[in-house]
Amino acid sequence: MSEKKTWHVRYPESIAAEVTIPVKSMPEMLQEVTAMYPQNIALSFYGQKMNYAELQKAVYGFAASLQKNGVQRGDRVAIMLPNCPHYVIAYYGILAAGAIVTQVNPMLVEREIEHIMNDSGAETLVVFDALYPRVKGVQGRTKVRNIVIVSLQPTEADFSPDKPFEGFLQEGNGQYTPVNIEPQQDIAVLQYTGGTTGRSKGAMLTHSNVLANVVQSYEFFKERTEIGGEKFLTVIPLFHVFGMTACMNFAIYTANESILLPRFDLEEVLNTIKNEQPSVFPGVPTMYVAITNHPRAEEFGIDSIETCNSGSAPMPVELLRDFERKTGAKILEGYGLSEASPVTHCNPPFSERKPGSVGIGFPSTDYKIVDLATGTEEVPNGELGEVIIKGPQIMKGYWKMPEETEVTLRDEVWNQ
């Protein structure tokens, strides 16, 4: 993909149009960051802090417990949690064990949970205690045999024979056995997406896919991202691919702090901004609307925010300008999809933006707009068509759906 693209003229000399993706797994990435910045704060949750050394220890502990319970390379382990430290520990612990993170939206009803469990074949599930009854309602119709329960408040509930997170974390006695992971082939995440056809399907994101999107993100935003000097307000859900990459993985790659909030509660968000002073706030337009419309928003120190990455829906131009006026931040609208880990486009932080657009292509990302009739012929500028995208962040395919994969991954388009 060395050919110079039209949007590359927007890139300054300091930003590479093409990036090299290291051949390493996501746990190796965390391990390297921890080795360099062990005392940097990795996670913050309602005032409690965890540094990278502590996070790494917990990740290996969780991986060891998974191994003790029979989880092997390639097995699927599901996470059904709100944003919390347990999510990050479970996510990286699953990957360290060589298993595949299966993302489950906590808002799903029993029928949808059952579908994902059966489609993925997950036998282990990490779940929030409030959702436990919903999971137990479908367990008998799935292969799930191990349930690990996360409680964010003290509880006297008895989940036997299932296991509380803290107890499970000790079962492996920290005796983690390293796993040989092939980053370009091994699946890291099954990201279920409704798409446009039928029941949700699992986009297979390899370790290299997920890492690629983080490396691309850093290259694109590096002039506004200080290694070890940023705080990410992480309130968009980590079970969503946007939160997974733009908050959790990007923050870890840059040795920065994630301030985790389990939901978007306006007063809680504003108080967190006041107390923690985050500098990076990936979000969606409804979040920015709520903050902008709060009559006393400026009293909460929202001017600490410097960069906002907005996705999932168009950002009204007037809202963008009003939010930026109140905070001094820059909102950068982008575009992505589950199948692309997810980011493919963004308004540039280093040159002129076009509010209301998805921006320009990420480093090492190519795209065309083709006609709907053939799916291969490029349309002239200004005409409607279908966006097709090529890059190292593009999924391996759909889980157990070779026909859907063949239709979606169109190599012939790029061979013309």
UniProtKB/TrEMBL annotation:
What is a single molecular function from GO for this protein?
long-chain fatty acid-CoA ligase activity
Keyword Membrane in record? yes
List the keywords (alphabetical): Ligase, Membrane, Transmembrane, Transmembrane helix
Q: Which domain of life is it from?
A: Bacteria
Q: Which SUPFAM superfamilies does the record match to this protein?
A: Acetyl-CoA synthetase-like (SSF56801)
Q: Where is the AMP-dependent synthetase/ligase domain?
A: 31-399
Instruction: Name the InterPro entries for this protein.
Output: AMP-binding_CS, AMP-dep_synth/lig_dom
Which Gene3D superfamilies does this one have? 3.40.50.980, Luciferase, Domain 3
Q: What class of enzyme is it?
A: ligase
Its Enzyme Commission number? Answer: 6.2.1.3
- Residue ranges annotated as transmembrane are 232-253
Query: Could you confirm whether the keyword Secreted appears in this record?
Result: no
Recorded hits in PANTHER family, A to Z, give: LONG-CHAIN-FATTY-ACID--COA LIGASE
Protein name, entry field? Long-chain-fatty-acid--CoA ligase
Could you read off the lineage of the organism from its UniProt record?
Answer: Bacteria, Bacillati, Bacillota, Bacilli, Bacillales
